[in-house]
């Protein structure tokens, strides 16, 4: 994870590391120091390096002295040039949670046939042709299954769900690539940045279903005011769609939430919880022939194993105890709200509105 990002001698100074003690220090995007420091000894960590003057052969001796605590996270630094202090500062978990890692832009290669082809593809994407094409295919697919009116309304529900993810990404200062609608599979919100903390992962994952819950509540209010059955149907099926996304299975939203909470508590506990969730999902897939869920489970299981194998090298700052409890309560309240809407419409006696509950009961 990016532990520190500040200015030093007129150029960016960036420190990357993890809880296993690995640290790399970059000055002007060039690696100047690398070391492994114990996370438990409590001693200051020192990085020493030399910088050459551009106009002569003389060098400048530089040092960065760090005081690092992981739980709760805090880091303070003191920068020295030729043994003279020139800068100091500090950063805590709130600063880390509200930031995104720096993206180093590679040097542009000279244009060639492959470069021109790549440029053309980027222009094709920038023109939003792919998004429009996928959106059109999604409307056609859902209209073929249901009706054009219902398909357009369902697309609106999917967009609201994915916008919840996008809104969370923007809250953390991430650059987003937008929303892609995928026929028969839903939607996908993409970001140009990676998350830096487990808290960011939880918030981005859960904001989609939270926005979806809000959409179902608005549709419920519209049904109460107008009596139109299409609002009732959309509210119930949108609740089921968002509830499905909260299944504790990777790569669904619920899987990201579960992984972030469980691996923040304890790595062994996290692995056991994720394995139990995967086993439960396999049982459901085997019993009811849910091929899509089985496919998602396969992908999620691989991700869990990779997370376990390289857990000590994770670049994500874990949740503190408050974050774990808050995330779990937020998750339960969202699930309860969606289930409540499904049960409400099932009690109306209408066979179609009762379908989402039958899906949950089956």
Largest sheet: 4 strands, antiparallel
Terminal residue distance: 43 Å
Percent range for β-strand residues: 15-25%
- Number of domains as seen in the coordinates: 3
Core attributes:
four-stranded antiparallel β-sheet; elongated; 3 domains; Lipocalin; 53% helix; 362 residues; alpha+beta
Topology (SSEs and partners):
Layout: E1 2-8, E2 11-17, E3 22-27, E4 30-36, E5 45-52, E6 59-69, E7 74-81, E8 84-92, H1 93-97, H2 113-126, H3 129-145, H4 148-171, E9 176-182, E10 186-191, H5 198-226, H6 229-245, H7 253-265, H8 267-288, H9 291-309, H10 321-346, H11 355-361
Antiparallel strand pairs: 1-2, 2-3, 3-4, 5-6, 6-7, 7-8, 9-10
Description:
By secondary structure, the protein is of the alpha+beta class. The protein has three domains: 2-97, Lipocalin, CATH 2.40.128; 120-167 and 175-190, no CATH class; 195-361, no CATH class. It is built from eleven helices and ten strands. It has helices at 93-97, 113-126, 129-145, 148-171, 198-226, 229-245, 253-265, 267-288, 291-309, 321-346, 355-361, and strands at residues 2-8, 11-17, 22-27, 30-36, 45-52, 59-69, 74-81, 84-92, 176-182, 186-191. Helix 3 (129-145) crosses helix 4 (148-171), helix 5 (198-226) crosses helix 7 and helix 5 (198-226) runs parallel beside helix 10 (321-346). It is elongated, with a radius of gyration of 25 Å.
């Amino acid at each position: 994870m990016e532990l520190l990002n500040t200015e030093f001698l007129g150029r960016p100074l960036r420190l990357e590391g993890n809880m296993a003690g690995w640290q790399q220090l970059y000055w002007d995007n060039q690696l100047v120091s690398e070391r492994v420091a114990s996370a438990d000894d409590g001693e200051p960590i020192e990085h020493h390096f030399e910088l050459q003057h551009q106009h002569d052969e003389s060098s400048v001796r530089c040092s960065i002295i760090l005081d690092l605590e992981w739980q709760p996270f805090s880091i303070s630094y003191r920068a020295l040039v030729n043994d003279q202090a020139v800068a100091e500062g500090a950063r805590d978990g709130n600063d880390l949670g509200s930031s995104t890692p720096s993206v180093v832009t590679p040097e542009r290669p000279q244009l060639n046939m492959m470069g021109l082809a790549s440029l053309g593809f980027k222009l094709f994407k920038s023109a939003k042709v792919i998004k429009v094409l996928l959106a059109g295919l999604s409307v056609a697919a859902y209209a073929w299954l249901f009706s054009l009116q219902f398909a357009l309304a369902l697309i609106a529900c999917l967009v609201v769900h994915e916008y919840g993810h996008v809104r969370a990404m923007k809250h953390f200062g991430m650059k987003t690539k937008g929303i892609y609608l995928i026929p028969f599979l839903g939607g996908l919100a993409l970001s140009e940045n990676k998350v830096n903390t487990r808290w960011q992962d939880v918030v981005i994952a859960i904001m989609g279903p939270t926005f979806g819950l809000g959409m179902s509540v608005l549709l419920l209010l519209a049904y109460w005011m107008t009596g139109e059955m299409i609002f009732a149907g959309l509210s119930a099926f949108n609740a089921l769609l968002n509830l499905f996304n909260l299944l504790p299975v990777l790569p669904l939203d619920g899987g990201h939430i579960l992984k972030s909470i469980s691996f923040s508590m304890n790595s062994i506990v996290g692995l056991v919880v994720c394995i139990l969730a995967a086993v439960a999902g396999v049982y459901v897939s085997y019993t009811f022939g849910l091929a899509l869920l089985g496919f998602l489970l396969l992908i999620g299981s691989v991700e869990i194993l990779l997370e376990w194998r390289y857990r000590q090298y994770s670049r994500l700052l874990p949740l503190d105890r408050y974050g774990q409890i808050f995330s779990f309560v937020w998750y339960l309240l969202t699930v309860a709200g969606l289930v409540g809407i499904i049960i409400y419409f099932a009690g109306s006696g209408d066979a179609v509105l009762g379908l989402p509950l039958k899906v949950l009961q089956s």
